[in-house]
């Protein structure tokens, strides 16, 4: 800055609508109008520093210009006031809050080294490179200032410098934090200690103040630099909570139950949701599944792009096994005649899960042959999701607006082998039948075809056998499979008996009568047979218990007797027995019973 300019006395006059800087006792000779203010100044200090003002004054040298308009000035009156202070030699501090404005105003006014040494442009750029770009918080602050200076700030590479600096600093901080977490275990091996939150992720809160377009560019740069997906996900969660929950009135249903999709607020929130979804890391579990469901609810509520919603549904489907019932209960935001919950969205999520599960099974050829091995992760996930779906069906079943085809579509979205037990599905269907009592008989039969009655537990089967809401054909199936279960239990309890007569009686009673009798008579007959089978099974169990007690007592008596007496009595008795004498007689008992009698006689002798 020239010494003459530094020594010029300045006086700040009172301002009504604008800022005025004048030489003391020297009247101003030019008035400059900018956006938001009017300045009465002097040509000489402005011309000596600003190439733009110098050119404008030179163009009107003959008319002695006294008024000048600077339209579309970056930063408005505040920025021009700082530039005018610099031209007059007034000292002020360059900070992160004004360096972006100074860079833009110096470019607009052409305050470069060509017109004056150590001009405003070079000083602002030097501060930006040597001070701001070495500090992450200052870079974020400068980016905030650039929000009102676009696109000029982008053209001057201010935004790019700050974004690159933020990404580099975050990556370096993360690497340093990883090294600080390294420690030696008791065995002398080097490992990384587990912490709930990495110390290198302190920048997450700082980035949440940025506007969505600049935030998107920062996260993209961080991905390119190799920042961990977990850190990217944590930053996205924090930013979404700030923009969609703390600032939004859509989440406060008590104050605004209806969403105006045409308002500016909804448009901004729609942009935020779509941008955050596009920034989600491709890795699984980078963000909590509850966050994905929250974003999906927002996308449905705000009517976001179809690609955005499908992406969220695909991500949720890939990790559906860790979801909860509350996650699946997505409210429906359509017309009044629709269901309470968004069933179509859940159905698409289940289809994505099933398709992913099928692809995983195709790749795991070994699991098709090793049936005795523990279930693979995909099989475990399938079992978990089947229970989740059954609970979801039971939750939405009471909805009077829920159509039968939607209920069946959700129930059939999983493969048949997903459910090892059909108790949950039976409960959901029973709730649906109870809530929709006007359902026709063909629809009830169609609904009950979803249940495999062989996979019902004993308690569920007993309930289904007495459930009047089920079609008669379904009750007959329940009783039939219950009868089969009882007969198999009888055969297992008494394997020595010949099962042929029982099998023949079953064929006569259950087969011939089923064909000749009406369904209602067949139903009563099956119930009587099941009741008789239960009594027979109880008697057999009591007999088995008695035999076990006799066997235990006999074993104890044999252990109490001395070995000499036992051997002598045994030799005397064995000499009198003729083992093969009555083996072929028609009236003799079975070998097992004969041995039992022999053992009992031996016990009595001893």
UniProtKB/TrEMBL annotation:
InterPro entries hit by this protein: BTB/POZ_dom, NPH3/RPT2-like, NPH3_dom, SKP1/BTB/POZ_sf
Bias-annotated ranges (Acidic residues): 357-367
Keyword Coiled coil annotated: yes
Keywords attached to this entry: Coiled coil, Ubl conjugation pathway
This protein's record includes keyword Lipid biosynthesis: no
Pathway where it operates: Protein modification; protein ubiquitination
Segments forming domain BTB: 28-96
Biased segments, Basic and acidic residues type: 596-606
Coiled-coil parts of chain: 523-564
Similarity comment: family membership: Belongs to the NPH3 family.
Name of the featured protein: BTB/POZ domain-containing protein
């Amino acid at each position: 800055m020239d010494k003459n300019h530094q020594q010029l006395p300045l006086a700040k006059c009172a301002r009504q609508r604008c800022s005025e800087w004048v030489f003391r006792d020297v009247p101003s000779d030019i008035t400059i109008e900018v956006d938001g203010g009017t300045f009465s100044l002097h040509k000489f200090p402005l011309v000596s520093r600003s190439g733009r003002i110098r050119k404008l004054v030179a163009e009107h040298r003959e008319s002695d210009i006294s008024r000048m308009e600077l339209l579309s000035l970056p930063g408005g009156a505040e920025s021009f006031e700082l530039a005018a202070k610099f031209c007059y030699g007034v000292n002020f501090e360059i900070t992160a809050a004004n360096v972006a404005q100074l860079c833009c105003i110096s470019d607009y006014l052409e305050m470069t080294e060509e017109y004056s040494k150590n001009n405003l442009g070079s000083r602002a750029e030097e501060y930006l490179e040597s001070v701001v770009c070495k500090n992450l918080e200052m870079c974020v602050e400068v980016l905030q200032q650039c929000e009102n200076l676009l696109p000029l700030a982008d053209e001057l590479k201010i935004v790019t410098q700050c974004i690159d600096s933020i990404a580099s600093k975050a990556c370096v901080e993360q690497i340093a934090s990883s090294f600080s977490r390294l420690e030696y275990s008791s065995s002398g091996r080097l490992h990384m200690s587990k912490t709930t939150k990495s110390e290198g992720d302190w920048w997450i809160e700082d980035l949440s103040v940025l506007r969505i377009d600049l935030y998107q560019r920062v996260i993209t740069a961080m991905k390119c630099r190799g920042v961990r997906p977990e850190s990217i996900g944590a930053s996205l969660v924090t930013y979404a909570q700030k923009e969609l929950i703390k600032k939004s009135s859509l989440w406060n249903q008590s104050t605004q139950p209806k969403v105006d999709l045409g308002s500016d607020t909804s448009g901004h929130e729609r942009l935020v949701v779509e941008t955050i979804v596009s920034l989600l890391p491709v890795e699984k579990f980078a963000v909590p599944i509850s966050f994905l469901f929250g974003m999906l609810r927002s996308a449905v509520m705000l009517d976001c792009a179809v690609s955005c919603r499908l992406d969220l549904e695909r991500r949720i489907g890939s990790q559906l096994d860790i979801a909860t019932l509350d996650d699946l209960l997505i409210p429906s935001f359509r017309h009044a005649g629709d269901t309470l919950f968004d069933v179509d969205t859940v159905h698409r999520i289940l289809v994505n899960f099933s398709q992913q599960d099928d692809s995983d099974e195709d790749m795991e050829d070994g699991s098709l042959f090793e049936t005795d091995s523990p279930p693979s992760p995909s099989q475990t996930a399938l079992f978990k999701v089947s229970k989740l779906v059954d609970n979801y069906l039971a939750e939405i079943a009471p909805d009077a607006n829920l159509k039968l085809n939607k209920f069946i579509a959700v129930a059939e979205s999983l493969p048949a082998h997903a459910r090892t037990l059909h108790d949950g599905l039976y409960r959901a269907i029973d709730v649906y039948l109870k809530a929709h009592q006007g359902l026709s008989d063909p629809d009830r039969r169609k609904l009950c075809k979803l249940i495999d009655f062989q996979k019902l537990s004993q308690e569920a089967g007993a309930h289904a056998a007495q459930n009047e809401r089920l079609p008669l054909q379904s009750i007959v199936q329940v009783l039939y499979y219950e009868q089969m279960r009882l007969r198999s239990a009888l055969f297992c309890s008494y394997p020595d008996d010949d099962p042929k007569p029982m099998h023949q009686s079953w064929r006569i009673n259950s087969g011939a009568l089923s064909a000749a009798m009406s369904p209602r008579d067949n139903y009563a007959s099956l119930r009587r047979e099941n009741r008789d089978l239960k009594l027979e099974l109880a008697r057999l169990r009591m007999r088995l218990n008695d035999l076990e007690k006799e066997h235990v007592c006999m074993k104890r008596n044999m252990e109490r007797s001395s070995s000499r007496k036992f051997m002598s009595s045994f030799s005397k008795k064995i000499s009198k027995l003729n083992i093969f004498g009555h083996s072929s007689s028609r009236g003799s008992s079975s070998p097992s019973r004969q041995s039992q009698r022999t053992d009992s006689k031996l016990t009595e002798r001893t």
